[in-house]
Amino acid sequence: MARREWTLExxxxxxxxxxxxALARAISLVENGDPLAYPLVRDLYPATGSAAAAFAGLLVxxxxxxxxxxxxxxxxxxxxGRPSLIELVLTMRSGTLRLATVGGAAVVxxxxxxxx
Length: 116
Description:
The chain is built from four helices and three strands, in the order ααααβββ. It has helices at residues 8-16, 20-31, 37-44, 49-62, and strands at 68-76, 84-93, 96-103. It is flat and about 55 Å long. The model has no long low-confidence stretch (mean pLDDT 84).
């Protein structure tokens, strides 16, 4: 059976719609560093620092990062109409993640109070 070629729109719609094959293909694209992976992740996920921090673990597991500091620019929020740029900095020592920092500009979207 021939491998299906996906468009960015088909993958985005498939992942959002719960299509397991689309999700599997999306994961493979990210793991293999395919050029389609970057716009796919950008379109799928809104900007959150917690997601960026978790992404650090994936980067460490899938990339051959050695000694030093590595900087990644993460663009998110395009589909929501709230584009953002998050900086993820990984500090590696002897092949082990020693520090991950997440940063970027922020704006207040909403605020409130929780009464206990």
